[in-house]
Fold these 3 entries.
Entry 1:
Amino acid sequence: MAAQAVSRSDTALGAHYRRMRAKLGPSQAIVATAHKIARIVYHMLKEKTPYQAMEAAEYDAQMRIRAIKNLERKARRLGLQIVPAPT
């Protein structure tokens, strides 16, 4: 229920749900989001740390950086080089 409720929020968990929904479909996205919430709660209880909320924009920026690094790594394996487009 928490994963379904967070799907409509403007948080990192909401952005995660929307990314998973595009990739897996709505029902599997809810399961993936619930699993992520469970991992967060487990880490908080185990390490005795407070929850650090992340905005959806910050999460999207983090995912963009990760995607760029993955593309660069794949290009290197193929013997290519990625050149950013001029803005």
Entry 2:
Amino acid sequence: MARRSRSIDTSDILNRMETLISGTDNRYKITVEVAKRAKLNRKHAKDNDLDDMDSMPKPVLRAIIELSDKMMQPQVLAD
């Protein structure tokens, strides 16, 4: 099994997840949104047969990063 060449800052991921959870009044909805985005990320990686998969974060981590980056857009967390 190949080692990941890029390390992920776990404290940054935890802070991002805390920001996501505290930014909404419904933990279930944000959890479902992260899961949906992770599933799409995984499908996208498989469909494109990416060679540099080892250098990319896992789909769930990528989903957390993407959603926390879009935290300022209310339509992401609304509904």
Entry 3:
Amino acid sequence: MITVRCKECNKELRSNNKTQSCGCPNMMTVMGDKVSALDLNKVVMVNSNKKAKKNVLSNQDLAFQEARRSRKVRRLDFEIK
């Protein structure tokens, strides 16, 4: 959930499932976790509770994936009778 403020009209909007707009000439709009406006220099991010993604794979799994990526593709030749 994010909270943004429009510097032009000083209206704060908090994100939710609906699209919200401040209504001033800058037309700051909040849609979920996306923010848009005619001039983003007039928009301030007040609060952002976005969580950083943790690495799901362990170091051993990452090493296996790196080794797997460097494998060559072998082509099999079949006899056609």
